[in-house]
């Protein structure tokens, strides 16, 4: 993802663009990694009619991904541990020093002044994606 987020590969890009920058990896390895990053929601893939190669691009900026992944993990944690997870989160929030409030709000994707969300909501993973 560092190659994508630092624009070392063009947007959109194909497997060959990444493989050229990482000659020590086999093309099939690069294809597998890109497919897994797409499944995990870090990349968006597009198949153009008449072309074999999929075009990839970042699905989120690094900041948006942090918010998206945090929300996804929170959903999974609550699904797994229920109210106990929410109680643990509440305790941790209460323990935070007041001067961390702005940092906490920016981590949640909420603009500190307006309260508006800054990133897309996470999608719920299917049981096939979760395993």
CA-to-CA gap between the ends?
A: 22 Å
Number of strands: 2
Structural class: mainly alpha
Main β-sheet description: 2 strands, antiparallel
The arrangement of helices and strands along the chain is: HHHEEHHHH
Mean pLDDT: 78
Which spans of ≥5 residues are poorly predicted at pLDDT below 50? 111-131
User: For the CA atoms, what is the radius of gyration?
Assistant: 18 Å
Count of separate DSSP helical elements: 7
Tell me, what's the shape? Answer: elongated
Strand content: 5-15%
Strand order of the largest sheet: 1-2
Helix content: 40-55%
What does this 3D model show about the protein?
The protein has seven helices and two strands, in the order αααββαααα. With 131 residues, the protein is mainly alpha-helical. A two-stranded antiparallel ribbon has the order 1-2. α2 crosses α3 and α4 (62-81) crosses α5 (83-95). The protein starts with a helix and ends with a helix. Mean pLDDT is 78; it is low at 111-131.
Task: Based on the model shown, name its key terms.
mainly alpha; 8% strand; 131 residues; two-stranded antiparallel ribbon
Q: Could you outline the blueprint of secondary structure elements for this entry?
A:
Layout: H1 2-5, H2 15-21, H3 27-39, E1 43-47, E2 54-58, H4 62-81, H5 83-95, H6 101-107, H7 127-130
Antiparallel strand pairs: 1-2
